[in-house]
Each structure stands twice: as C-alpha cells, then as structure tokens.
Amino acid sequence: MSDAASSVRLFFALWPQEEARKQLARLARRIADQCAGRCVRPENLHLTLAFIGEVDSSVVPILRQAGSAIHRTSFDLLLDKLHCWGKGSIIAAGVSQPCGELVMLVQDLQDQFSAAGIRYDTVKFVPHVTLVRNAKQEPEQEHFPEMIPPVAWTASRWSLLQSQLTPHGPVYQSLADWVLASQDSDEHHRA
Description:
alpha+beta, Cyclic Phosphodiesterase, Chain: A, four-stranded antiparallel sheet, 9 strands, disordered C terminus
C-alpha cells in the first residue's frame, strides 16, 4: 500500500443543530454575495475542536479511543461575531464569549492526544464556523459589523472526521461520533 493510500486528513468537530445550520447557511449566502466568495456547503458547516492533519490511517483507532475516553455534558453555544482571516478571504462566525464547557472539551482532547503521543495543530483555539472561503473582498464594515445576529445551538454531538479534498470542495466522512450527555443527566451516553 502506498503512503498516499494509507494517509488520512483528520479533525474533530461539533455539528450544529439543524436550525442553527440553516441560519448559518443563510448568513453564509448573504456574506458570499457581498464578498464574491464561495459559501461552505450547509452539510459541511462545523466547529473544529482539534485539527490533526495528514496522518497514517493506523492512527484512527487511537483517536477513536481518545474520543471515547472523554465524558462531557452538552452545552450552549452562541455565535455572534464575524472573523475575517487570510486578508479577508476566509470569513467565519465566532463567539464573543468562549463557553467554558467548549474550552474544557478541547483541553480534554489535547490531553488525550498528548498522552497518546498524537501530534495535532497547536494554534490557539478560536471557536468558529467557517462560512465563506475565497472571498474576493472583505465585508464592508457598514454592511457587516463585527457582531452578527446571534446563532445559538446546544452542542450535543461531536465527531472524528476524515476530510477528502475534491475539486468541488472538501467531503467529510464521520469515522466516530459521540453524544454529549444531557445537561440534566448524570450519565454519559455514547453513540
């Protein structure tokens, strides 16, 4: 088997609930129209918890085990801010106040990676959902102030995803999924 065949591009992410996904997709279309950019497809909207990158496929079971070792409850997210990166070519919805539970979930993942000797992207965690890529211009400040109409969702599931890059954009395949326990439940349920 060649190196290319045994290598996979991986990350962990939260999936928005359906209503939040619809709101984010509408916002992405509006921004893309103003910036001459490409919307992220609604089915690909996610909040990255940790980016692993290109690794040998033999790492997948270790990452599944790392995810299964984490026991957290669901929590509420509020996306209410715009980020523009890469000279404005990437536009994302972010949070003005990071949620403690989200930060703890990310820290748990990083602790698991360190314990297992897994390398991961150590760039400072900035919670966001990418909405638009390849924007030709930054949003006009008067049309797109830093704050946006809030998009709320209860984070209740997260996944280990494989990203396959295609000419039409990335295709994500779930390799493992976990359910965050209900906030009023003492038990932790796993998918």
